[in-house]
Design brief:
Order of helices and strands: HEEEEEEEHHEEEEEEEEEHEEEEEE
Structural class: alpha+beta
Low-confidence stretches: none
Number of domains: 4
Distance between the termini: 79 Å
Number of helices: 4
Strand content: 35-45%
């Protein structure tokens, strides 16, 4: 009798099929979970600049341009305005102290002096006339006093005589009283004349003192105005080189106008323009260095000008040692200005990557040199050659420091030979 054959569920074929399905599902999940989802970009290694992160002495400094200027310069201004009559010195020539440079003429100033002289002479005449009137009045009073003294003396004699006659009853009391009244009148009149003379003398003295003071003031003012005539002849205040002179014959110059400049060429400094970004970090005593004629010369900041113009401010730097021979006013030198002392830090060479990343990230090569992965970093100070690395990189690592302009948003670069 036939019996049915029972089919097995876990056949070899079914087991193989289930195993394949599980492997496929596992592969799919693996690819979804562990695949490299970063964006890649193939680049040519020949077009890249690869630099190595290193540890070393870092010094922050900036390059600035310095112009040679004399330590001492004196400006020449027109104290009084006028028309240029004659030029005695040429621009660029050497001049001595007090040497005439330019002569101006000023008609209004001459008329002013003539007017003041006339006023002074009038005041002097008034003073002279007042003194003459005072002397005349003094003589008149003296004459009046002499006359009064004579009349008073005569009246006194008459009074004594009538007193004797009155006692003998040879004249009346009325006649005696008239003689007494005449004497008293002459005496009081003399006293009044003396008081008038005294008061008039005091008044005349005050008047003369005021006139004399007025004459002295006018003489002083006239001397000052005459001194302005001397200012029309412009002289060199110091000895040196007349580096500039803005004056032509016939040219009008206003009072206070800048005419020229004299430089003392005994010693020089360098005047440097610096970006306003560094204004808080520039202090007196900072050291700089430049090369001239195959020699290095050290400078020191000696003066800071706080005014900012067009995004820059200026400083003066003096030589710490001897001045180089052969430098001339107006020469320009490239100076390395040190902003800090050398310190041991992790450093990264400068490159075009900074324009694209702002120093926030960089591509770091793996050990094989076949890939470069994007990594966040933090940079600090910088100079013209290196960046200070604060975080994100270690000495010995290699990074791409060339421009990232064509990399887009790639997270991984594949370097092709």
């Amino acid at each position: 009798m036939d019996r049915p054959i029972e089919k097995k569920f876990w056949t070899a074929k079914r087991i193989v099929g289930i195993t394949l399905v599980c492997l496929i599902i596992f592969a799919i999940f693996y690819m979804l979970l562990f695949r490299d989802s970063s964006s890649r970009l193939n680049v040519s290694a020949e077009r890249l600049t690869i630099s190595e992160v290193e540890r070393g002495a870092f010094q922050e400094w900036i390059p600035i341009n310095g112009i040679v200027v004399p330590v001492k310069s004196v400006y020449i201004d027109a104290i009084e305005g006028g028309r240029a009559e004659e030029v005695f010195a040429e621009e660029g020539s050497m001049v001595e102290s007090n040497q005439p440079i330019l002569k101006l003429s000023n008609t209004n100033l001459l008329l002013d002096i003539m007017y003041r002289e006339a006023e002074l002479y009038r005041q002097i005449n008034d003073l002279r006339n007042t003194r003459l009137a005072m002397e005349k009045h003094r003589l008149e009073l003296r004459s009046a006093l002499l006359d009064l003294d004579y009349q008073l003396s005569k009246g006194e004699r008459d009074l004594k005589r009538v007193k004797v006659l009155q006692k003998t009853k040879m004249i009346s009391d009325e006649e005696f009283k008239e003689a007494q009244d005449e004497y008293d009148y002459l005496f009081d009149r003399r006293e009044l004349t003396l008081e008038t003379h005294h008061q008039d003398s005091l008044f005349r003295q005050v008047q003369i003192a005021a006139l004399e003071a007025s004459v002295e003031r006018m003489q002083s003012n006239l001397e000052i105005v005459r001194g302005k005539l001397d200012n029309l002849l412009i002289r060199a205040p110091i000895a040196g080189q007349l580096t500039s002179l803005d004056a032509e014959v016939g040219q009008l110059k206003a009072p206070g106008m800048r005419i020229g400049q004299i430089d003392v060429l005994e010693s020089f400094i360098l005047r440097c323009g610096i970006d306003e970004h560094y204004i808080a970090r520039i202090t007196k005593g900072l050291i700089g260095e430049f090369n001239f004629a195959n020699n290095a010369y050290r400078l020191q900041v000696i003066k800071i000008y706080p005014e900012v113009q067009e995004g820059r401010f200026e400083v003066d730097m003096g030589f710490m040692d001897n001045e180089p021979e052969g430098i001339r006013r107006g020469q320009t030198f490239r100076i390395h200005l040190e902003l800090s002392a050398p310190v041991e830090v992790v450093m990264l060479p400068r490159g075009g990557f900074y324009q694209s990343t702002g120093g926030r990230w960089i591509f770091v090569l793996d050990e094989t040199g076949e890939y470069a992965l994007r990594r966040p970093i933090r940079l600090g100070r910088q100079n013209t050659q290196m960046y200070e690395v604060l975080d994100g990189l270690e000495p010995g690592e290699r990074v791409l420091t060339s421009s990232y302009e064509n990399f887009g948003d790639a997270d991984k670069l594949v370097l092709k030979k």
